Q: What sequence folds into this?
């Protein structure tokens, strides 16, 4: 095992741990994307360029994008439900006013 | 079950599984060595026997083309399932809900992102076709070419906005490309059945190793898979994008 490959393994392990330790789903999608990028670099170092290309697009682009889109939909849905329950004073607006002052 | 018993169950099970894992790792062959006889045989025989310079693609599209067909059908089923589940129902209407609901507007795409993105869309498409067409010669193949082609569409979405993306990318066209390329793969297999008696057995000439037109049916099958995978992934992402913009009427 060359030093470069060893460094690749360490980076992937660190990034994987990072994904698990990221608790906010939106932030996790971004760290998952970084993990996918590093994993594809490791595949390249291990002489598997074909797998690296697939991992690059599927792991670093497509899956995080789908997670983000699904999250945006879910948050939108939750916001609407909250707005329906308290129609007079939506939470968001209060926060925005507070920041303005 | 009480908290204490649960914790001890986890500790004991974890120790047992961990021990098995360590035992399994000690039995692994040394890093970088490969003892699969079938693999070594293929590396030696495949270039001469099938006219492929890239043995991996030779396995995927020739020796194991049936597996590839079924994997493609899995992707097809997944895309069809998503399209069915996320279809627009009568009580939903298309609108841009983001601004209407949260009172926030998305920040405009920066000029640099647009410039670099536009530069790369063309290169991305070119590279996707290169990968799909040269699978039998160098690293890549149909699936890789397809996902790289799909990423070009993601770039288009990144540099424009969804309205423009939706106008540029016709879903009917994508669905047609997806269905036709999957169908053509299935029919290409039937050609083998007619001429050789075995489904998906190569009927095209092998050619000389290293030429673009070599490796028998790997070249056309690679292009078909690239179209199917590319259209499938773009359709999948489009369905999710549309969902993020749909509002449920209350």
A:
């Amino acid at each position: 095992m060359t030093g470069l490959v060893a460094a690749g393994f360490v980076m992937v392990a660190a990034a994987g741990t990072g994904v698990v330790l990221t608790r906010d789903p939106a932030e996790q999608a971004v760290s998952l994307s970084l993990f996918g990028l590093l994993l594809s670099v490791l595949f390249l170092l291990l002489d598997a360029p074909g797998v690296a290309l697939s991992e690059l697009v599927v792991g670093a682009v497509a899956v995080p994008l789908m997670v983000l889109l699904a999250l945006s939909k879910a948050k939108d849905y939750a916001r609407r439900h909250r707005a329906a329950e308290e129609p007079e004073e939506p939470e968001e607006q209060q926060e925005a006013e507070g920041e303005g002052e | 079950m009480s908290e204490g018993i649960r914790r001890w169950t986890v500790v004991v099970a974890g120790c047992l599984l961990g021990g098995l894992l360590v035992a399994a790792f000690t039995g692994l062959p040394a890093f970088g060595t490969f003892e699969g006889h079938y693999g070594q045989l293929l590396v030696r025989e495949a270039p001469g026997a099938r006219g492929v310079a890239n043995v991996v693609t030779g396995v995927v599209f020739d020796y194991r083309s049936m597996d590839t067909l079924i994997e493609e059908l899995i992707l097809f089923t997944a895309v069809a399932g998503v399209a069915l589940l996320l279809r627009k129902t009568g009580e939903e209407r298309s609108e841009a809900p983001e601004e209407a609901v949260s009172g926030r507007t998305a920040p405009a795409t920066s000029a640099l992102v647009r410039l670099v993105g536009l530069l790369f869309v063309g290169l991305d498409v070119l590279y996707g076709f290169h990968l799909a067409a040269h699978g039998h010669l160098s690293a890549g193949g149909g699936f890789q070419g397809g996902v790289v082609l799909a990423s070009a569409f993601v770039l288009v979405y990144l540099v424009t906005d969804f309205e423009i993306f939706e106008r540029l990318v016709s879903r009917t066209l994508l669905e047609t490309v997806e269905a036709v390329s999957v169908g053509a793969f299935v029919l290409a297999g039937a050609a083998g059945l007619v001429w050789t008696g075995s489904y998906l057995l190569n009927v095209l000439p092998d050619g000389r190793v290293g030429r673009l037109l070599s490796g028998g049916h790997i070249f056309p099958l690679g292009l078909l898979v690239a179209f199917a995978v590319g259209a499938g992934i773009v359709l999948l992402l489009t369905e999710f994008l549309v969902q993020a913009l749909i509002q449920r009427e209350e």
Summary: Chain A is about 85% helix and 0% strand. Confidence is low (pLDDT under 50) at residues 93-101 of chain A. The interface with chain B takes residues 1, 49-50, 53-54, 57-58, 61-62, 65-66, 69-70, 72-73, 76-77, 79-80, 83-84, 92-93, 96 of chain A (CB under 8 Å). The first helix of chain A runs from residue 3 to 21.
